[in-house]
Amino acid sequence: MSASNKYAAYIGIDWADQKHDIWQWDAETQQKEHRVLSHTPEALNEWIQQLQQRHPGQKIAICLEQSRGPLVYALMCHANLVLFPVNPVTLARYRSAFTPSQAKDDPSDAEFLCELVRMHEDRLSPWRPEDEKTRQLRLLCEHRRDALGLRGRMSNRMVALLKSYYPQARELAGDEIGSPIACDFLLKWTTLEQVQKAKPHAIRAFFYAHNCRSEQVIARRLEIIQKGQPLTPDPAVIEPMALDVRMLARLIKDLDCSIREYDQRIKRLFDTHEDAFIFDSFPGAGAALAPRLLCAFGTDRQRYAHAHEIQTFGGIAPVVERSGKQMWVHWRWHRPVFLCQTFYEFAQRSMVHCPWAMAYYRMQLSRGKRSHAAIRALAYKWIRILFRCWQERIPYDDRLYMDELVKRGAELLQYLNKPEGKEPMEELA
Q1: Cα distance between residue 61 and residue 334, in whole Å
Q2: What is the rounded CA–CA span in Å between residue 176 and residue 100?
Q3: Span 9-128: which CATH code?
Q4: Does residue 23 sit in helix, strand or coil?
Q5: How far apart are CA 349 and CA 355, in angstroms?
Q6: Each residue's pLDDT tens digit, 264-323
Q7: Domain 136-269's class?
Q8: Do the Cβ atoms of 107 and 218 come closer than 8 Å?
Q9: What CA–CA distance (Å, rounded) separates 287 from 141?
């Protein structure tokens, strides 16, 4: 095998739910072959065994359009199979360069993937799976985030329904529709008619049981119930919507239980992780964001050569484009959304717990940036700090960083105690 062909074979896989188109190029014979593989564990295992027998102990490069999923999980169990995941956009652009019609075809896409990894292996990054604990932690964090998003959508749906037939519920059950007390209230009294039929002492007992014991608040809610008038008396509107509200209330309560279970499992895994002390030291990270930051960096210190790589990959670094005499800057829109959200949310949270972070945010605002752009600029700065602590395996120390800022006479020191909308304090310059 030549030095240019360090892999015994190059394979491109166009995956689908029911079948996979596979193109394979043998480095020794330089022959291509195409096959269609059904998406079953038996067929996948048989094909992998054939590869192992054909190229015993040799590495095989596999290029495909995903970095997770059942196919990846089946392939990653074999050390000699090196995966090169590519973005579907990358394949689409590669296809358009060689097919004028730009028509998508599964066998052709598999062939293009095979050619892409064979001809441009040096420009592609092999996928190196994290250790089991980190992979499990990442999935738990992502699924927890999905559960929170689903809960938010259900709460919004519930608000929309209540506005249509039972607007008083927002005041009676609390301002936050979707809270435990609101769900319990709506499960017990789903319509205005039902709560008006209830006895005052029963309503009072309900609020007392849910730690709402302000007599003033309870009296105001009883008055709303007594004087309340239905928005519509039409049963054709009320009954279907009330059924939906009860369903959503039950689902939200179940989701809350699942989210608490996610929190417990994430905490157990994070507390036992060898890098937990690094990310737990950052101000504002807390129980929710510290595990997400750990997953963002992983445990492979060779994955990123410098901080700019993760800034770019996460969509935090601005993209500069040039054409002739023109130049324009914009954000990277094609990015891992969960990763970008993690850095953005941490930067936003850090302003509450870190004085210099708030000062940096105010400095960006003074330069004409909007709030969203200022937070992204802060995230960009935080990633450099996170990267260094991660690489050197040291916890973050806010006092040491502040001392360094003072030593350098950093500009942001002017904004440390500056109230918003006023000029920075000259004595801190």
Answers
A1: 25
A2: 55
A3: 3.30.420.40
A4: strand
A5: 12
A6: 999 999 999 999 999 999 999 999 999 999 999 999 888 888 999 899 888 888 777 777
A7: mainly alpha
A8: no
A9: 11
